[in-house]
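Continuing the series of single-chain predictions for the mutant panel. This is the parent chain; the variants come on the following pages.
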Amino acid sequence: MLRATLAVLIVLSPRVAAQDTPPFHGTRPATLELANVHVVRGDGAPATGPRSVFVRDGRIVREPIESPAVRIDGTGCYVLPGIVCTHAHLQEQVAEIAIPMEYQLDLWLASGVTTIRDVGSTFARSLRIRQRSTRGEIAAPRVFLYQQLGPADTPAEAVARVDAIKEGGADGIKLWSNQSYRPDVLEALLARAREVGLRTTAHIGVGESNALHYATYGVTSIEHWYGVPDAALDGVQDFPPDFSYDNEVDRFRYAGRLWREARPERLDQVLATLVDLGVAWSPTLAVYEASRDLVRAQNLPWFADHLHPALERFFRPNLASHGSYFIGWTTADEAAWRESYRIWMQALRRFEELGGTITTGEDAGYIYLLYGFGIVRELELHQEAGFHPLEVIRHATYNGARVLGQETEFGRVMPGLAADLIVVRGNPLRNLKCLYPTGCDDYVDGRSVPTGGVQYTIKDGFVYHGPTLMAEVRAIVARDRQR
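Parent structure:
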């Protein structure tokens, strides 16, 4: 840690990213000033500035600090709260190839993610990552572990599993199985989760219970969108006779047709009920985008230097790899998914109009989605859905903190809260592409000018330099490709 008497000045140009690793990268300076920045608070309020943001001992403070240990001149930059990714997986390996921990964590930090909600991973390993992140021993976002409950056939079995998850040190529970839980099982496990103080989120499979059952029995939030249009059907979805739920080509093909079968007036009632019962929604729009435009997903420009060989192999169409279902994918499939996105996005807008809480998650590591890049794309898709950029940033920051029960700790740029902040070149309110860690370009006087990129991600006062993190990612990818 730097001594308070050692002043370090870093000047950021709005047009040229800082390339040299600053001496305080990976440290928690006792005092910090982000000077001459525009500030987006995170709760929907418009930007203010240019002004300074001051940090002391990892917390944002109101009083100016005369001689900060580190002063970053962010002229032309915007400061936002750190992004809360409410759907993430700490992956150890895919396609029988190991994924270095640093690769994932660096990508998240370089994309402005300061908090992740892990909803399924190797729990013992993730628990160690959570502990080391909390202590500042590794460059990593803050981690909330929601352990998967897994299959449960009886209420007693489900309750026992909840107790074991609580005793194991999880922060919450992810409800997921290929088939939805029976109502009696669901009621018992959600009641027990509330008793022991565990929040819950659900990936709702097709079965006897839909989103209304989960909401009625007290789930905290839902993932993706499964179970919502199901609750607005007349009977069951119109599956063909040869459909198999265990075949992912079948499953995702007909998932892309489900929204069209939901009755609009009944869907509105479902959304109102979810809001009335306080259920939040992490839609993960980005992870299914390949279903509506496969060629785009397979040819993303950042794959060239940043796609790890494990993911490259895992993404290839192969039913043995979850989410790699693009075998015989047709123009009709893409058209159906595009229509589903239109209805889905309309439902999200209606959900928020009714008072619902929407967050941002990515589910990266699946379906051509790369960590960090996926969460930025999620924000872009929220804007496509019709939300103002200030609302999008609220989804990604303050709302995420609220769903985790941490709104008094982080999620806004406010005195007293943890210094979870990102310093971005350019104005993300004008162009959310500024948040991509590879940056973007701007149109100035008839020419292209480089801009964008998260220059610094600050988590709990620890400062990480975005370009340095991305250089580490490229080095990992180059090394592992050579292997």
